[in-house]
Amino acid sequence: MARHPAKRAHVLALLGAALLIVTFGTLAMQLGNEMARHGQMDRQSASADQILRSLDREVEQARICRFAWLASHDETQRQCFNDALAQINVIRGDFPSVEQVQERLNRIRPASLDQLKASLDTIANWQTSDDAILNRPATDTALSGIDEALISLSSVDTARREGRLADMLRNTSWQKRLDAIGIIIGVLIMVTAGWIPDRTSLAAARAEARSRNLALQLRAVLDSLAIGVAVFGTDGQLRHWNDRLGSILGLDEGFLRQGLPYGDLSAALVVDGQPLLEPFTHVEQAFLRGQSAPPVVVECKGINGADLELCRTLFFASDDGLHAEDRRGFVLTANDITLRLRSERALGESQKLRAVGQLTAGIAHDFKNLLTVILGNIELATEASEVSDSERRQHCLDAAAHAARRSEALTGQLLSFTRRDRPAPDTVALADIFSLTNGLLARVIGPRITVGCGSARDIWHVQVNPAQLESALLNLAINARDAMPGGGQINICASNASYPTAIDLLTLPVEDHRGLRVSSEPTPLPAGAWVRVDVTDNGCGMGPEVLQQLFEPFFTTKDDGEGTGLGMAMVVDFCRQAGGRVVVASAPGHGTCVSLWLPRALTETARTAPDYTPAPSKTNLRALVVEDDPAIRDIVATILGLDGYRVTEAADGEAAFDLVVEAGNTYDLLVTDIQLPGPLDGFRLARLLRERLPELGIVCMSGDFTLDGPRPAAALPVIQLLPKPFRREGFLRTVAAAMQERISA
Predict the structure, then answer these.
(1) Pairing of strands 516-519, 274-275
(2) Of the candidates 161, 152, 160, which has an alpha carbon nearest to the alpha carbon of residue 52?
(3) What DSSP string runs through 104-129?
(4) Which of 571, 500, 536, 530 is nearest to 430 (CA)?
(5) CA-CA-CA-CA torsion for 268, 271, 274, 277, nearest 10 degrees?
(6) Looking at per-residue confidence, does 630 or 63 come out higher?
(7) Whole-angstrom Cα distance, residue 701 to residue 155?
(8) Each residue of 277-332: pLDDT tens digit?
(9) Which of 78, 101, 581, 605 has the fewest CB atoms within 10 Å, counting from its CB?
């Protein structure tokens, strides 16, 4: 952890002061030690001088006494001389200390010291003082040698003492200077040490004040946010949060606290046994991935019923001044999106109403074409009454029936598009589709445009809904016709393609200069066997601005009222349900090629619906038909009557219930529409009559039903559902299933 700037300044100032104190203290101690050493030497030298002076005094006394004895031969002078020699011998015992001092002062032993020692040794050898000693010349020589040695030692010692005194004076002067310099520098250091911390403390205080202000501003910003924010450390403990977090998540007041573990918060946010937050182990794994780990966003229902958007994001700080545990962590945000979802739903409803208006204005065009085909062929069939015209009459009836089936397919496709239902697929041979579509396209497209369908005899079968495939080819052919107002040619062909690996369809070679291409799916086409169906025209083509919006519902380049913009969207939806995709290649002036990529069927055998075989006589079975539309009611009653049932008709649920009561609950079959006038709809009527007639077979009809659609919750399990429109064979199969259910019940 980095030190505070003020602390660093204090530490540096103290280190500088300590260094100077140690330096000057060491110099002062060295000077003091040197002066103490000189003082000790001076004391030892003074002691040695005292010994030498005593020796000099005794030698002088011996010489005086000797001269006095020589002059008077007085015994007193003899005794004086002997006493002086005795003192000299006593002083000789202290001579080793004099030798040590002289050797330390001179570092080299002086010759006078040896001379003095030899003279003292000579005197020490004199056993007694007799007249011979007093008269000997050697006595004068020994005493003179001591005098000479003392004079020499005294002069050397005086010079040494003067040198030591000069050194001491110089050292004392330097010590005073060092003391003065130390005092001055110490004062400067104290002033600097006080000024630097003061400045750094002031700067640190200002920085801390700015940090506090910034923290307060950030806190105010967090509290002003409309979303809840929580900051966690890498240990999963809560560090910071704002006031909105608890209210958005529906937590009790006081639940959020400093250091709250992430696991405790996750345990509190559980709805229907499922935690709203991801496990902490996932967060730890995200930390291992580093900054490349993406945020995690989820929409869910909160414990208070609100719609929430929860987002978890990692953060990695680069500031080295932070603690290691503060450099990483993650942020959890909670946003209440209830109002946004309501707005989106309202917007969706408004867009749906607008789409319904566009659909109502445009879909009439397609139905008018089909109704024209139906009514025209029926009229022609009615006029062909002669036997010779039977073939033409049958041809007209077949054309009318085919147009009616096209109307049924168009209605089912619209329901599939709006509800995302999946119509029942079948194994389809494209050769059959092309043969049926070729004649229809020739009549719908018009004489100015040539339609050509290639041979599809060797093309693999596909698993699709045949009516939807026919509708898709018709929509593409009509779009191609509108792109060629002056006439042209439309070619429909198919080919087999097999890829061992996934392939990007937009990377295939460009055909006929159509370099602008779009795909309904951005992902590559999976590996496998595919059937490609191409619808190609030589019209005006499309530019990039049109291709970018081509697959959007309700997008059209036609004038208002001339198109719904749902044709291409239905084609894309059909291919998506079949597991394929659509690729459009075009260029201005080079026409357009729309390719349908459909997966190959697993089996090459087309499924056929079992033919209906009439059951034995049903003259004893009674059927009740409930339908508010008289035409449909009449058709249903006629089909059941031809099948052998005794049929009774009713226009609503109440009338049907009264008929059952009047007949004494003797009906065997109920065929009813779901949407009936009055309080009893089809499901309620079926439930009431089932309670009275436990063995009643029930068939419910509605245009809202689809073959693979979800079963309504109000429908009893024994009810057979019949989608409208229906044909005779399909209707009788459903009735037979209902009667079989009646028998098994």
Answers:
(1) unpaired
(2) 152
(3) HHHSS--HHHHHHHHHHHHHHH--S-
(4) 530
(5) -50
(6) 630
(7) 150
(8) 889 988 888 888 877 778 888 888 888 888 899 999 888 866 555 455 556 889 99
(9) 605
